[in-house]
Every structure is written in C-alpha cells, then in structure tokens.
Task: inverse folding
C-alpha cells in the first residue's frame, strides 16, 4: 500500500481513540446495560483493524506477537476468576458482587463477573487481530 | 503404614524438586535422585516388620461423588515388590548416576525414572482397582518416555511406541475388566472384591472380566504372543532396561495375577490359560534367547522366558507354587538387574555388545567376569545361588502338571541353562580371532559395585534364604493365594526327583552349549509377532491416510456440502425416528409490516450473493443480510444481540479485506451454470432448519428458563443486563469454553498461515 487516502487516515486518527473509549464504556456498563466484554472486544478489534487499514503496519514481522500473548492472558484471567471461587470455599465459577462507595465517583458496583468479562474482552481482541495480522503479514502474490 | 505412604510419595516429590535442586548442567541430579530412592527404600524397610505382623490400609477421599477412594494397602505381596522397586532402584539409580555422561540430559532422565518408581510403588500399594489402573498406565507412560530417551534415534522412537501401544492397550482392556468386576461387586476396593469372590465367579460376566484382566497382565509382562515389545524396548539406556524391563515394570503383570489370583482363579479359564501361556513363553523365550548375538537382546528374551516361568507359578494359586513364584521373582530381580547393568558396563567399555565381536572378558575384565558368572549361575539354577532353589521349587510344580506341559517346561529349563552358559563361558572364552575383537579395560569400581551388590544378594538368597526373606515370602505367598501358607523351608540341600530333573537339565543345557545345536544367527530373524505388529501399524496408518484423503479434498465448497449434508441427514433421522410435531401455533401474533420488510432483505441479499458477478459484490450482499438481522434484533428489543451483530459484520469486513489479496480469481471458483444439486441441498437444509425450529416450539415443557433469569439476574448476580449476566455468570462455563475455542482457532489460523514450509522463491 503506497498511496494512502488522506481522508481515511485523518478520519481514522480521530475515530481511533473515540472508538477505544466507546469500547471501554461498553465493557464497563455491560453488566447493567447493553454492552459487555464480547461486544467491546469486537469493537476494539475493529478499531485496531481500521488503524491497520488506514496507516498500514509499520513493523510487519512482530506486530502479531502481543496479540497472541493477549489470547493467553485473557484466558488466564477468565480461568483465574472461574477457579478463584474455590479459594474462598465456594463452588467452581461462583461469582460475587458488592457495592462500594468511592470518593468522587460515588456508589459503584464491582462484580467478579466483570473480571471474567475482562478476560473475554482480551481474548476477543487477541483473536481477531491475530488472524488479521497473520493474513496481512504475507505479501500479496506471495503464494 | 505411614512409612509406606512416605515411601510412595518420595519419588514423586523428588521428580518435582529435581529441576530446582540440581545444578545447571545436571551434574549432581543422579545423586539427588538416588538419595530420594534410597530414602524410599529405607522407609519401606522400616515399615516392613509392622506390616508383616499386621497388614494395614489407609484410605483418602478422592472423588467422593463417584465413590472413588485413594487407598493404600500393604501386605507381604506389596512389600516383596516394593523391596524390588526401591532396592534394585537404589542400585540402578546410583549406577546410572555414574553411567550417564554429561552429554546426556540427565535431569530429564532422572525425573522420568523417579516418576516411574513412584508410579510402580503406587501400583503395588493401591488398594483400589481404579487407582491401580491410573498408576499402571503411568508406568507405561514413563516407560515410553524412558525407552524413547534417545529420541533422535528411529529405533528408540519405534520401540517406545511399540511398548506404549501394547502395554497401554492391554491396560485399557484391563480397565474394562476392572469395571466389569466393579459393577458386579459395587465397589472397586480390592478388599471388598476379595470378600465377594464367589459372587464374582458365579456371575455371567466373570469369564469376560478374567480374560480382559489377563490381557492387561500378559501384555505388561511381555507374555507370548505380546512379547515382541520387550526386545524393542532395549533401545533404552541400559539402566532403564535393568530397572524397568527386567526388575520391576514387567513384573507388574505378575503382581496383578498374584493380587487378583484369589478371586480370578475361581473362574475356570484363568489358571489353565495362564499356565499354558507362561510355560510356552518360558520355552519360546529361552529358545529365542539362544539365537541372539546382541547381549541385550539375549537378556531381553531371557527376561521374557523367566517372566513366563513366574507367571505359570502365580497362575496355580497354590501355596507351594506361590512360594516358588515369589522367591523366583526376588531372585530374578536381583540377578537380571545385575546382568543388565553389566552389559551396560561392557558396552560402556568396549563400545559393542555383540557376542561375536567381544574379546575374552576373562582376561580383559576379570572382576566383571567373576560377577557375571555368578549372576549367570543363578539364572541357570546352579548352586550355590538363589536361582537354584527357586528352580527346584519350579520343577517340583511342573512335575505335577499334565505331561506335555512338563516336557515343554523341562525343555525350557535346558535351553535356559544353554543361554546362561553362553553368557558365563562364551564371553570368557579366548577366541582365535582375538586380535580383531574389541578389547575393554576392566570396569571402574563406580560401575562395578552396583551389579556386585545385586549378585551378592542373589548369593545370600541361595545360602540363607529362610533367614533373609522367609517371613516376606510366606506373607507374600499367602496374599497371592488369599489363604494360609506354611513357613517355607528353603534349602540348598535336598534329595528328590526334581534334583534328578535338574541335573539332567543342566547336562542337556551344557550339551546345547557345547555342540552349538542352536546356531546363533548374526542377524536374528524378525519375530513373527513383530511382523504382525508392523503390518498392523502400517496398515492402520495407510488406511487412515486414505480415509482422510478421501474427504479432505482441499475444496472449501466440498467441505461445506459435507457439513450441510450431515445436518440434513441428522434432521431427517430426527423426523423419522422422533416424528415432526406441527402442533405449535403459526402466527401467534400478527407480524408487523417492518418485520416483513426486514425479513425480505436477507432473502434478497442471499440471492444477490449467489448471482453476484464479483467477490466484492457477494461480500456486500452478505453484509446486507447481516445488517438487516441487526435491524431486526434492535426492533424486537434485543439491543445486545443487535450490537453484537453489527460488530461481527464490521469485523468480518476487515477480515475479508485482509484475506482479499490472497484469494484466487473469483471467476474461476464460481460455477458458470446453475447447479441443481447444490440448489437442492441448500433448499433441503433451509426447510430442515425451519421445520426443526417449528418442531422445537411445540416441545416446550414447563415454563421457559428465561423467567428464572429475569427474576434472579439482579438479585443473584447483581446485573441488570440479563444477556450479559447469562454470558458471564449463569452460563459462564459455556463462555469459558467458547473463548477457549476462540483462542485455539486464532492460534490455528496463525499457524496455518504463517508456519508453512519454506517455498523456493523464483
């Protein structure tokens, strides 16, 4: 990709942080309103893919490595949450939640389910970007 | 009893700690591992008097919901084996520590060896059939790893695989037998099974269970016709051959026969089958041993032969035979372990173990030769070694058997003497072509004292057997027959018919050796059992390849057709066998106009995708179908689904884009003409799914689970978004499975794309 669309590059530069913020918001509100880790993960992946398309990828060789790692990290988080309840004497996958009053923010509900959802989020991002970058790593016509 | 728990755990603890305790190059890990096994030996020895006085058991809950216990029981039989495992183990470990050079991966080696020792102790102390099975297979696995220790060699890998396939396969048959027994009795505890032996023998599954368990025992102990894995296992480093494939692991089958004997010998098929197999194995093994020129192969076949002998003894389930079996098993562990270690030393010093290439050991390795002669004497059953007494006991049993068996067994005894003389005298002879043969220096003391200690043990078993092991043998034999055994009077000096047979066998064996009736062939002919195994293996691989190739055509459309057709077949089967229920009402609620519109878009889009002239157009048509679904979701009040659908469509576009440049021309892939077959398949699938959905609507019993989710989402999970709560909480396990699949799929994708073999660039 030699010639890049200026319009696309500019739009992507603005859209990228907005999309990421929106994804975080979707994740955070997921427990109580439409959203959640899976959707947020897909949105983040789409944002990163947009960046790839608009800017190209500077370093082709190593770009997918952190995303492969992310799959493992996400799975580890999800598994830890699932097994964590065993440490407290509850059955496998027992979630808990509580309400906390934090300064400035106010009443916040924190749930272990959200941690599990974080694992889902990371796995989804890792999955999509691993595949996308694996496919774009190869030069066209290399076959 | 707790001493034995400690003894069984020590090897596993050692295996776990070894990587941390040893120095970076693994210089000292042999000695550390030896320390663990010696400590285990000490624990067994300390516990022995108490256990012989009063056998005991300890049980831990394992899977209480399945009624599984992790229980340990000890009696004389377990102890006799435990002495072999830890005692011979101590010698072999220290020998291996001196034997393996720094170029070997010693840390890995001793880890495997410790795991094996622990697993083997687990087998003999298990008081529960299921835990015995688990340890049994663990010994097969560790044996696989140890045979394949030099994994860069083809023969090692082949031998490891063969041993695993045969022993683990037999182990699976044994598991089925255990399960049959367990379901007859209602318990897997060996004590309960002993108590219910009449009930088992009378049951109609009894014969099947006995045969399956027998299969496990004879594969593990390399009995005819499953003996072929043992010679191939000789690819392992020599200490492994000495330990696993002479002294301990191959005796697990004997242990099983002895342990289950009181129960299974009540089943008519048990004793005759095992006796015949054992005697045939003994004679056939000794015949094959005579034909070998490779020292290790000779010892391997002799092990097969000796195992057959002990197997035939344990199969009798009489006091005298069990005494003979236990005693010979102890003897065999000592002298065969020693012989293997000495072959290791010879190979180490002379760099060959071929009989026809070795120079006289008598002049080159005098100290080793002396020990070798003593060990061979014990194997041949010649005074003053322990082997003589156990051979006499064996002949005494054999003389009471039907005459064909007696003849075969005595023939086997002659051949045994023959190959022992090959070892003892053949290696010591000075040959005419001495100069061309490999000379060796005498073995260093570090390598020699291990075999010497073992042979000294075998000598003591000949001189003072009753004092040394009388109580142990009595208790072990009693456990093996499940009754009382008189205190054995083992003595070297006696006059009986067996002595005459013994003398005759020794003379005949000497004649076999002297006149070379069994010419040794330089290239030992391939075993028939080996040929069968190889034909089976290559046939399996070949056919599996053909079967896979028949549907793995590499054509995506064919895969999709197969998947869809399987779907159609299963739905048709459902319709035929369960019936189609059309009772659910069509149109419970009048559809609104927008729903018609939204429903028509995917149909139009699907048609568009089929007729689209370019790939981009087809992708856009698919996208239209996806987004119209999202529209439908949001209109009927499923914002989460709509969001997900939109995101999935968006990401799909990105994936298509990145795949675009790699794909071949679209025109080539697209069939030019209308394809009635594919049209029919597509329509059948669509109709099928619609019918299935309608059928499912008519099958609802009780309320929907949705009510439960609605009621409990806030209260129990603290979330107002039911969809999300289901995903991460109520059905969290499903999600965990799904994201694992996602992760694996991404890695597979990555591997498929990136890790192709390098192609030559133009």
Result:
């Amino acid at each position: 990709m030699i010639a890049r669309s200026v319009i696309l590059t500019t739009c992507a530069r603005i859209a990228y942080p907005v999309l990421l913020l929106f994804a975080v918001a979707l994740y955070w509100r997921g427990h109580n309103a439409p959203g959640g880790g899976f959707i947020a993960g897909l949105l983040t992946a789409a944002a990163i893919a947009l960046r790839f398309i608009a800017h190209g990828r500077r370093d082709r060789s190593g770009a997918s490595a952190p995303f492969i790692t992310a799959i493992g990290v996400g799975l580890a988080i999800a598994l830890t949450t699932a097994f964590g309840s065993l440490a407290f004497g509850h059955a496998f996958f027992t979630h808990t939640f509580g309400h906390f009053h934090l300064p400035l923010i106010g009443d916040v509900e924190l749930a272990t389910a959200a941690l599990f959802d974080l694992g889902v989020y990371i796995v989804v991002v890792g999955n999509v970007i691993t595949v996308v970058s694996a496919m774009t790593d190869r030069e066209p016509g290399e076959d | 009893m707790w001493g034995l728990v400690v003894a069984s755990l020590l090897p596993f603890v050692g295996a776990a700690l070894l990587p941390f305790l040893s120095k970076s190059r693994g210089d000292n890990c042999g000695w550390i591992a030896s320390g663990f096994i010696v400590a285990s030996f000490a624990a067994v020895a300390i516990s022995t008097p108490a256990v012989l006085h009063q056998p005991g058991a300890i049980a831990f809950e394992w899977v209480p919901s399945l009624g599984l216990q992790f229980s340990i029981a000890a009696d004389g039989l377990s102890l006799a084996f435990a002495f072999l495992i830890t005692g011979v183990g101590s010698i072999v470990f220290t020998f291996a520590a001196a034997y393996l050079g720094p170029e070997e991966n010693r840390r890995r080696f001793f880890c495997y060896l410790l795991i094996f020792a622990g697993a083997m102790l687990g087998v003999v102390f298990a008081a529960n059939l299921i835990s015995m099975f688990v340890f049994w297979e663990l010994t097969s696995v560790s044996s696989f790893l140890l045979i394949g220790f030099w994994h860069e060699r083809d023969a090692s890998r082949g031998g490891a695989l063969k041993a695993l396939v045969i022993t683990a396969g037999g182990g699976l048959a044994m598991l089925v037998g255990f399960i049959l027994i367990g379901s007859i009795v209602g318990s897997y505890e060996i004590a309960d099974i002993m108590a219910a032996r009449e009930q088992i023998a009378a049951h109609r599954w009894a014969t099947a269970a006995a045969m399956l368990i027998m299969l496990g025992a004879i594969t593990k102990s390399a009995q005819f016709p499953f003996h072929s894995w043992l010679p191939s296992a000789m690819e392992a480093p020599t200490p492994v051959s000495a330990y696993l494939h002479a002294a301990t692991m191959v005796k697990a089958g004997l242990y099983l026969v002895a342990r289950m004997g009181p129960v299974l010998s009540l089943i008519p098929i048990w004793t005759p089958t095992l006796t015949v197999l054992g005697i045939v194995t003994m004679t056939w093994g000794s015949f094959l041993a005579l034909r070998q020129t490779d020292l290790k192969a000779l010892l391997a076949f002799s092990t097969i032969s000796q195992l057959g002998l002990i197997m035939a003894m344990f199969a009798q389930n009489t006091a005298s035979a069990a005494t003979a079996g236990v005693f010979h098993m102890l003897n065999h562990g000592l002298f065969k372990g020693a012989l293997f270690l000495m072959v290791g030393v010879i190979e180490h010093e002379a760099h060959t173990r071929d009989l026809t290439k070795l120079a006289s050991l008598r002049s080159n390795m005098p100290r080793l030769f002396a020990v070798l002669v003593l060990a061979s004497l014990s194997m041949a059953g010649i005074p003053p070694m322990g082997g003589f007494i156990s051979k006499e006991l064996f002949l005494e049993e054999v003389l009471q058997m039907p005459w064909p068996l007696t003849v075969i067994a005595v023939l086997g005894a002659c051949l045994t003497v023959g190959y022992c003389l090959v070892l003892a005298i053949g290696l010591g002879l000075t040959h005419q072509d001495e100069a061309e043969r490999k000379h060796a220096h005498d073995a260093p003391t570090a390598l020699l004292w291990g075999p010497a200690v073992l042979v000294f043990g075998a000598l003591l078993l000949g001189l003072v057997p009753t004092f040394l092991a009388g109580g142990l043998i009595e208790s072990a034999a009693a456990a093996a027959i499940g009754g009382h055994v008189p205190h054995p009077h083992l003595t070297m000096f006696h006059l009986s018919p067996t002595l005459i047979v013994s003398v005759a066998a020794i003379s005949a064996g000497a004649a076999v050796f002297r006149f070379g009736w069994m010419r040794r062939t330089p290239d030992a002919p391939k075993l028939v059992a080996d040929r069968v195994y190889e034909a089976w293996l290559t046939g399996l691989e070949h056919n599996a390849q053909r079967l896979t190739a028949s549907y793995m055509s590499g054509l995506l459309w064919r895969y999709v057709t197969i998947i869809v057709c399987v779907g159609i077949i299963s739905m048709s089967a459902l319709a035929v066998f369960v019936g189609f229920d059309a009772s659910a009402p069509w149109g419970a609620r009048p559809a609104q106009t927008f729903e018609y519109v939204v429903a028509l878009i995917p149909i139009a889009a699907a048609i568009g995708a089929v007729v689209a002239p370019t790939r981009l157009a087809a992708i856009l048509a698919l996208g239209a179908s996806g987004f119209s679904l999202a529209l439908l979701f949001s209109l009927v009040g499923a914002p989460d689904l709509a969001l997900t659908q939109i995101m999935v469509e968006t990401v799909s576009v990105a994936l298509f884009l990145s795949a675009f440049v790699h794909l071949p021309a679209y025109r080539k892939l697209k069939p030019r003409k209308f394809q009635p077959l594919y049209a029919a398949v597509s329509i059948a699938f669509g109709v099928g799914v619609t019918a299935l959905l309608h059928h499912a609507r008519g099958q609802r019993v009780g309320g929907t689970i949705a009510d439960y989710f609605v009621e409990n989402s806030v209260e129990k999970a603290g979330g107002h978004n039911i969809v999300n709560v289901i995903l991460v909480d109520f059905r969290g396990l499903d999600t965990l499975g799904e994201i694992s699949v996602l992760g694996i799929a991404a890695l597979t994708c990555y591997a498929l794309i990136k890790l192709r073999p390098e192609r030559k660039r133009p």
